[in-house]
């Protein structure tokens, strides 16, 4: 009781400002205790965890970048007659070597072997050795370059097998229907495509005919071949209208429109410009270009 009276007396003896200060101090202590007990300090830990996670992912990204930098670009088979400036640069050709090839092609001439490619472009033996395994010429070129059998050859069965191959450009509907998997409908579709194109220039075109499965295409390649360079009426890509271009089997209306648009903005189209046209089927450019007149 005495302590209580003493505290009361001391409180009375304090000035007004001292009493206010003590009251504010007590309130501040209560607030600090409340924050300590009820405050959420998990956000700081969360930020630290997120930072650790980010650093871990950044390490994975850096590792992938190093792996990607060490990987060599994949080279797919291509027809060297249609090498563009960019393609030639990626292959390691000099500007002069690319220009020699383009000048040769402007004369509407084609290289048909690795040796002829080197003769025209004058590339080094080392570069030719690196890129020539990826050269892919049309079937009729490969067949022309194949050595014929000697009359004294002992492999008689192979000679008979070659004789059985039928030129796809001379095949009848009955010939096509002898292939397992090809009925009346598919054989008719193949003949209609041949008629629209004038002739096939490569057996690779069988893959572009709708409805032919990879298995059937393989069987066609076992029974048919392109024996000689066909004579075809070429499409004047720089003269024809959208409607006329769209009638070509490999050009739909939208692509024909893009061709005319590119032509109107850049002038006459050249072979090396085909890959620059929006929507152009670049994977088949070596086949389609054989049907075009520039």
Could you characterize what this model shows?
The chain has 15 helices and 4 strands. The strands form 2 sheets. It has a two-stranded parallel sheet. The chain has a two-stranded parallel sheet with strand order 3-4. It is 56% helix and 3% strand. By secondary structure, the chain is an all-alpha fold.
Keywords:
two-stranded parallel sheet; mainly alpha; DNA polymerase, domain 1; 294 residues; 56% helix; 15 helices; elongated
Reconstruct the topology from this structure.
Blueprint (H helix, E strand, L loop, with lengths): L1 H12 L2 H23 L3 H29 L14 H7 L3 H12 L7 H8 L3 H7 L7 H7 L10 H9 L1 E2 L5 H5 L6 H14 L16 H10 E2 L9 E2 L5 H4 L7 H14 L18 H4 L3 E2 L1
Parallel strand pairs: 1-2, 3-4
CATH architectural name of the domain at 155-225: Orthogonal Bundle
Low-confidence stretches: 147-163
SSE order: HHHHHHHHHEHHHEEHHHE
Strand arrangement, largest sheet? 1-2
Question: How far is the first residue's CA from the last residue's CA?
Answer: 116 Å
* Helix fraction bin: 55-70%
What general outline do the C-alpha atoms trace? elongated
> What would CATH call the homologous superfamily of the domain at 155-225?
Photosystem II 12 kDa extrinsic protein
